[in-house]
Structures are given as C-alpha cells and as structure tokens.
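Run log // design_07
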C-alpha cells in the first residue's frame, strides 16, 4: 500500500511538471506568432502551476509590453527579477518599459542593474545613455555614449546618438566630427551624410553643406528626409546666386 501511494505521488508530480512545461512552450510559440492574448493565458496557466517560474512572468510581461500595457508589463517583469536577481533580459525590458511609460528614473535603475549582470552588452549601455538624455542629464549621456564608442568602436548606434545629442545642444562642430567617424565605420549609413550637411549648414559652411546634401540624395533619394534636404539645397543654391549677382552689381 505504501509503495502504491509513493508511486502515485511521484506520477502526479511528474505530470504537473509536464503540464507546466506544456503551457510554457505553447505560450512561447504564441508569443513568437504575436498572439499576445492567447500567449498571456498560457503563461498564466504555467504560473498557476508554479509560482516561482521567472520565465513565465517574463513572458507574461512581454505580452503586456507588446500590447502597450506598460504598467502591467512592469508588474510582471518586476516579479521575474524578484525570483531571479540575475535575469538580464528582464532588467533590460523593465528599463525599456519604464522609458515607454515615461519613467526615465525607473529606466536608469533597471539598465544599471542589467549592466551589472552583463557588463559587455552595448545595447543596455546605450539605453542607459538614452535614459539620462531623457532626464536632460546631457553631460552624463554624452559620457556614456563616448565610453561606449571607446569600448565598442564598431557599435555605430553610439555615434548616432552622441552626434544627435550634440546637435540638439548646438555643438555642430563636434557633432560633425562624430558623424565623420561614423561614416568611416559604416560608409553605407546615408543618414550620416544628411547630419554632416546640417552641421555644415548651421556652421555657415554652405558649400560643404551642399556637397553632403547631394551625397545624401544620391544615396537615398526616396527617404523621409529627402524633401527637406532638396528644399534646403535649393535655398542654398539661390543664396549663392544672389551673392554672385550682388558682387556683379558692385
């Protein structure tokens, strides 16, 4: 009788574990297919069987993130890191959700934790810089972008964000240098040509601005920026013609 009870208990435990795994696998498949409501239901079933399953809480959080319910996403991602304090992906997504929810201070906290868990992940470091930039802590953001450039010189997003912030701050000369470095690293980045053109334009270097505007249009004539660049190029041409006429009259 004792042996029968023991075997039954073992069978029930195994069956429960399999059931939880089935729900989790099904939820993951549904999440990949973007069936977020159905995926959430299956993650919840997995959690009901095992309350300490950090991956199911993470998956549930991602379902809510993808349906733009960031408050609920934060709730379940917080639970995931409470269970597993070294869950890099959960800290990272918490940071993203806090940014999307307009809580940059919360984002900073979670990106710092993500970097502590995985110090070599450039995306987490970049998002930390973006979070500080969102808080208008520009010096800190610039320092983070620069450190990222030094440590991961092929990570071109760092150049993009640093140059964009410098332009926002009106530091066009330094932004131009960063964008030139970006072009060296990634010659196919046509947006860098537009950025360099704008920098020269703002610095009053019209010939150089026109040259880079033309480069941008040659490479990317159908982009969203193309119309603005074309209009600005025409304006600079007309200014140059007016200047020539003025000197001719004199």
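design_07 sequence
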């Amino acid at each position: 009788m004792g042996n029968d009870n023991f075997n039954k208990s073992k069978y029930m435990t195994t069956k429960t574990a399999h059931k939880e795994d089935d729900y989790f696998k099904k939820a993951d498949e549904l999440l990949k297919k973007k069936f977020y409501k159905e995926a959430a239901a299956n993650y919840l079933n997995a959690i009901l069987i095992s309350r300490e399953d950090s991956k199911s809480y993470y998956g549930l959080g991602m379902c809510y993130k993808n349906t733009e319910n960031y408050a609920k996403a934060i709730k379940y991602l917080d639970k995931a890191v409470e269970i597993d304090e070294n869950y890099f992906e959960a800290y990272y997504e918490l940071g993203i959700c806090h940014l999307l929810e307009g809580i940059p201070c919360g984002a900073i906290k979670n990106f710092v934790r993500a970097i502590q868990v995985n110090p070599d992940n450039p995306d987490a470091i970049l998002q930390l810089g973006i979070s500080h930039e969102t808080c208008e802590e520009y010096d800190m953001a610039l320092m983070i972008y620069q450190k990222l450039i030094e440590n991961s010189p092929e990570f071109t997003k760092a150049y993009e964000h640093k140059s964009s912030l410098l332009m926002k701050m009106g530091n066009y000369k330094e932004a131009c240098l960063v964008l030139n470095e970006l072009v060296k690293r990634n010659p196919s980045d046509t947006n860098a040509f537009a950025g360099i053109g704008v920098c020269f334009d703002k610095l009053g270097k019209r010939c150089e601005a026109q040259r880079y505007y033309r480069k941008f249009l040659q490479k990317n004539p159908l982009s969203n920026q193309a119309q603005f660049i074309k209009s600005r190029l025409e304006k600079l041409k007309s200014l140059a013609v007016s200047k020539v006429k003025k000197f001719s009259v004199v």
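The domain at 180-250 is CATH 1.25.40.10 (Serine Threonine Protein Phosphatase 5, Tetratricopeptide repeat).
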